[in-house]
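Progress note, sequence design subtask.
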């Protein structure tokens, strides 16, 4: 402590011991007596020029006479007296020692009437927010930061400094710049402060043990940190004891941290960083603000949570909640909708929350109930809510769900290609009324995208009796019986109760986008009618079997279609047969292989036949083909992070689209089931289709994320204003009608 003692009597300094003790300081000043003065670190002649220069350049006030200055932990220093004489008269001095404040007040009450003195704890300032233009700390922070007492008091004090200092105001901290002090000072004033460090000149002829520094921090707008500037000649000051070397290392390390925040990467901030203003004031809403953080600490919460904070881009929009929480389950955490910024803003918009906090669950949360997670999260998200800390406004919890009222897992399988596959029977939440009238659906979902239903079939119910059961056993192979194709046939009929059984209804399309695909065939109604009248077949290729529901409907409903299905995963074919009553015959063939390769091979065969025979023989159908083809791509993507859920991105590359154009060279229709929540990705796909095809149409489905695109290499599609009549003609060709009002012809748009 020799550097702090100066010339003072060592016995008096022994009374301090703990620099944070009010009683010790009262005793210290009592022993020194009234009228005594004592300066820590530096005398006025050395302080005058750097101090007055900083105060005069302060942008928080118009002039020195108007500058509101706070001197916390003032003690018996004469610095305020000298500042008063230099024109800085509106100075407030505080100290928690009543002894020294009483002495200083008596000393200056008449000679310095505008100067104020108050007994006050510097860690609990009794002043309004944004009150002072400058705060002069002469060793106060150092005194609070005695290593054996930790940083708690220092942090509390600096929070008060930030609160009472005006924007543009300066915090002038005279310090010995010890590492534990700088660590707290740099961290607490990292965001929204401009920091520079100056060396206080030493008294001529003296050789002090320690160098005194002045750390100047200017309060600016919260946000990205500024690098710390060293505004002194490192070679002209005393380097004894490694003090300066330690300071330089501390500044270098801090600037490295600050540079990381300004590098433009998608940084995961600590909660403390956000509370310190890394992305602006947390208690205020900043339109378009987005930042990532980790919530939960060891001992204070059950789990850690990855969180993304988003302030609505359009706060003028109707807002239902000041702040909301949206929980993303582990099974969906990899989906584009939740992982991409574009998708997250869509979630914010639909949530109607001014601030949305997205919480991503992971494997560490497995086994915990939603009630436990919500209770654990509630106090954590309260720290991120806008408004005052004591604001008790309700924060609603939302979750990405599937709206299922009842669920029965029928079968689970794992494929090397597709991964986890689930077949389930469900009743939806909106299914009200007589339980005997509830509609039961069989769904196919993939574990990699559990929120997306790959296929969905309506299960029809039939009266059940012993006679009917006996009849069915005669005609339907049991689960132990093999079909002629060597595949196990499932018990496709499942008892719901003692009087009802169910089976897949292939006369009905449960998926809205499947109905959209079928309705879009009306775009080539003239070709369809010609095929029917001439007894010809239309070659139809479907890439992506799924549960086989669309192929089965087309097979039963439009008998003039010659269907071939290409499926990459053989497990899917097994499941379609076993659980969705999919069957093949002379009008329905399945090829296990890659859809792109299948089209390429078909084009190679066609080209070879043209070269050798001069004619084109249909490669997908028999000689009874009309020459017109339909190609439907209804395959899902395994890479959900790309923002394109359907189809896989390879199916919308220019190279494949040119293969399709060649494949349909004699006329026909190319149909794509497009699922992407990204307008940018959707636009890219549309531009590629426009470049490759002569005509392009779109059907957007309001109740779904699907968009069905129809393209033709020839101008053989009708105009959209004729579609109403064309759909009616298509219905007359169908064995089963589409549900009334499900697809409105007016929803079709001509894009080219």
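Output:
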């Amino acid at each position: 402590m020799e550097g702090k003692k100066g010339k003072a009597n060592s016995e008096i300094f022994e009374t301090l011991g703990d620099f944070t003790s009010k009683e010790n300081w009262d005793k210290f000043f009592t022993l020194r007596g009234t009228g005594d003065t004592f300066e820590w670190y530096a005398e006025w002649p050395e302080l005058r020029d750097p101090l007055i220069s900083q105060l005069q350049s302060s942008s928080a006030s118009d002039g020195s006479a108007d500058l509101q200055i706070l001197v916390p932990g003032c003690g018996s220093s004469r610095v305020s007296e000298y500042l008063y004489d230099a024109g800085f008269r509106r100075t407030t001095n505080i100290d928690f020692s009543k002894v020294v404040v009483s002495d200083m007040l008596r000393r200056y009450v008449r000679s310095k009437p505008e100067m104020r003195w108050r007994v006050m704890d510097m860690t609990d300032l009794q002043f309004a927010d944004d009150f002072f233009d400058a705060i002069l700390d002469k060793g106060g922070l150092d005194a609070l930061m005695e290593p054996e007492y930790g940083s708690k008091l220092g942090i509390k004090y600096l929070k008060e400094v930030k609160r009472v200092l005006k924007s543009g105001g300066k915090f002038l901290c005279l310090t010995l710049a010890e590492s534990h002090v700088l660590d707290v000072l740099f961290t607490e004033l990292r965001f929204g402060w401009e920091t520079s460090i100056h060396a206080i000149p030493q008294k001529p002829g003296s050789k002090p043990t320690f160098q005194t520094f002045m750390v100047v921090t200017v309060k600016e707008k919260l946000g990205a940190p500024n690098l710390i500037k060293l505004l002194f000649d490192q070679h002209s000051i005393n380097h004894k004891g490694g003090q300066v070397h330690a300071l330089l290392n501390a500044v270098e390390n801090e600037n490295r941290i600050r540079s990381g925040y300004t590098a433009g990467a998608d940084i995961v901030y600590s909660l403390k960083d956000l509370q310190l203003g890394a992305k602006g004031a947390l208690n205020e809403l900043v339109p378009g603000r987005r930042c990532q953080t980790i919530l939960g600490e060891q001992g204070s919460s059950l789990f850690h949570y990855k969180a993304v904070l988003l302030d609505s881009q359009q706060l003028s929009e109707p807002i239902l909640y000041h702040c909301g929480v949206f929980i993303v389950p582990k099974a969906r955490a990899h989906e584009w909708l939740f992982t991409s910024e574009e998708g997250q803003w869509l979630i914010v918009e639909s949530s109607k929350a001014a601030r949305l906090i997205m919480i991503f669950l992971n494997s560490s949360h497995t086994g915990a109930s939603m009630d436990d997670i919500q209770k654990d999260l509630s106090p954590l998200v309260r720290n991120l809510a806008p408004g005052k800390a004591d604001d008790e406004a309700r924060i609603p919890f939302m979750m990405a769900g599937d709206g299922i009222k009842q669920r029965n897992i029928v079968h689970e399988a794992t494929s090397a290609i597709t991964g986890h596959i689930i077949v389930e029977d469900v009743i939806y939440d909106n299914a009200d009324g007589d339980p005997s009238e509830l509609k039961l659906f069989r769904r196919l979902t993939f574990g990699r995208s559990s929120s997306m239903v790959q296929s969905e079939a309506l299960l029809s119910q039939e009266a059940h009796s012993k006679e009917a059961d006996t009849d069915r056993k005669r005609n339907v192979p049991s689960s132990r019986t093999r079909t002629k194709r060597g595949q196990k046939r499932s018990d496709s009929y499942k008892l719901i109760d003692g009087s009802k059984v169910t089976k897949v209804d292939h006369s009905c399309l449960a998926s809205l986008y499947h109905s959209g695909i079928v309705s879009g065939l009306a775009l080539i109604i003239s070709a369809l009618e010609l095929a029917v009248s001439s007894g010809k077949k239309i070659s139809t290729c479907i890439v992506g079997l799924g549960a086989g529901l669309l192929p089965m409907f087309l097979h039963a409903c439009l008998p003039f279609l010659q269907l071939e299905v290409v499926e990459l995963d053989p497990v899917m074919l097994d499941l379609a047969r076993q659980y969705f009553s999919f069957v093949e015959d002379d009008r329905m063939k399945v090829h296990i292989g890659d859809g792109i390769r299948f089209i390429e091979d078909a084009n190679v065969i066609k080209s070879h036949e043209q070269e050798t025979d001069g004619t084109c023989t249909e490669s997908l159908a028999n000689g009874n083909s009309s020459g017109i083809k339909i190609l439907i791509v209804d395959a899902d993507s395994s890479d959900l992070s790309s923002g394109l859920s359907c189809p896989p991105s390879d199916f919308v590359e220019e190279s494949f689209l040119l293969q399709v154009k060649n494949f349909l060279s004699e006329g026909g229709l190319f149909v794509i089931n497009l699922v992407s929540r990204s307008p940018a990705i959707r636009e890219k796909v549309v531009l590629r289709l426009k470049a490759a095809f002569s005509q392009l149409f779109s059907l957007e489905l309001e109740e779904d994320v699907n968009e069905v695109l129809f393209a033709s290499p020839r101008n053989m599609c009708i105009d959209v204003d004729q579609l109403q009549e064309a759909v009616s003609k298509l219905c007359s060709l169908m064995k089963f009608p589409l549900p009334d009002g499900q697809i409105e012809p007016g929803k079709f748009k001509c894009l080219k």
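Residues 147 and 524 are 83 Å apart (CA to CA). Work on this subtask will continue into the next period as scheduled.
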